[in-house]
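1st attempt posting a full record on here, be nice pls
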Amino acid sequence: MAVNAAAIYRDNKILTATPAELTLMLYEGAIKFCNIALMAIEKDDIVKANTNLQKAQKIILELRATLDFNYSVANQFDMVYDYIYRRLVESNIKKDKEILEEALGYIREMRDTWKEVMKQAK
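the predicted structure (as tokens):
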């Protein structure tokens, strides 16, 4: 039986990650799936685009679900996540690269902001 070292490493990385690192991983995952979807749209691979846009949408929903509304900034994050989610859905329905690129830009901004927050917290 062959052991997949990469899968074991990934699983251990997830199991030992802090909540902040897990959030960063979610952003990175959403960006990855959006990029795959962009390439799929360019190649007219509608099934692959749909699959990866749905993965990105699920990640945005997870980010929304983990918001702590004891902090006032959570309401603003919620509005941004709601907007990104709606844009991802729209880009999926229309298979529209421009809409997807807009959503991807916001996800990257959120990820970069999160990285800064993580740096300042150390």
